[in-house]
Structure formats: structure tokens, C-alpha cells
């Protein structure tokens, strides 16, 4: 990838995962960062981002995007055998059964 040359961060993509507590912690950190950016003196502030579809949490200085899996038996088998790089699904929860994976996905949607 290529690093942007000095411009503000337009968006943040969250990794796919099933650790709900870690997701909440990360979103709280991003909310704190957004509040800190809002408190900067006028000349030091980043421009507010243009409206874009992102998580419904009201971030003003950057967009936050997240992905999730739609659980299926095939997906769970594939993720147990050969998980994708950067995907963090718990073996004792999400990967345990299709019903548990669906429940975690519902909870992820509620958090987003």
C-alpha cells in the first residue's frame, strides 16, 4: 500500500472479529480520539469529513467502517481449517456452532 502524503485520515476500517469487548473498547477509543480532535484549536483542526456511509456512531473527523461475516456451515468450516489473515474469530464462541456465530453476528450489529 501507499501512504497518503500528509492529509488527514479519511476513514478507519476495523478488522473482522468476534471479540465484542475488544470491539467496544476500540470504538470507545475512536470516540475519545474524535472528541480530542474536536477540542483542538481552530487552525489545528482537521477538516470534518464529508458525509459518507459509516458506522452510525456520529464520528465527525473520520469515517469508521466495519465488516462482518454472514454465518454459514461452510464459512465456519473454512475459518476453522484455514482462517483468513487478520480475521479474529474465537474457537470457543463464534466457530463453535452456527447458532453461536449467528448470535455473535447479531451482537456485532447492535454494537455497530
How does this structure look, described?
The structure is a single chain. With 112 residues, this protein is mainly alpha-helical. 38% of the residues lie in helices and 7% in strands. It has three helices and two strands. The chain has helices at 20-39, 73-81, 98-111, and strands spanning 11-14, 63-66. A two-stranded parallel ribbon has the order 1-2. The model is unreliable at 49-53 (pLDDT under 50).
Report the radius of gyration as a whole number of Å.
17 Å
Mean pLDDT: 81
Strand proportion, as a percent range, falls in 5-15%
Shape: elongated
Separation, N- and C-terminal Cα atoms: 27 Å
Please outline the helices and strands:
Blueprint: E1 11-14, H1 20-39, E2 63-66, H2 73-81, H3 98-111
Describe, in short, the structure shown.
Helix 1 links the parallel strand 1 and strand 2. The protein is mainly alpha-helical. It has a two-stranded parallel sheet.
Overview features:
112 residues; two-stranded parallel ribbon; mainly alpha
Amino acid at each position: 500500500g501507499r501512504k497518503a502524503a500528509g492529509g488527514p485520515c479519511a476513514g478507519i476500517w476495523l478488522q473482522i472479529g468476534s471479540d465484542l469487548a475488544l470491539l467496544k473498547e476500540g470504538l470507545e477509543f475512536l470516540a475519545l480520539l474524535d472528541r480530542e480532535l474536536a477540542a483542538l484549536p481552530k487552525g489545528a483542526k482537521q477538516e470534518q469529513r464529508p458525509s459518507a456511509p459509516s458506522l452510525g456512531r456520529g464520528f465527525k473527523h473520520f469515517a469508521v467502517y466495519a465488516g462482518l461475516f454472514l454465518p454459514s456451515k461452510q464459512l465456519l468450516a473454512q475459518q476453522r481449517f484455514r482462517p483468513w489473515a487478520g480475521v479474529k474469530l474465537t474457537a470457543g464462541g463464534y466457530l463453535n456452532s452456527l447458532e453461536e456465530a449467528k448470535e455473535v453476528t447479531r451482537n456485532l450489529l447492535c454494537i455497530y
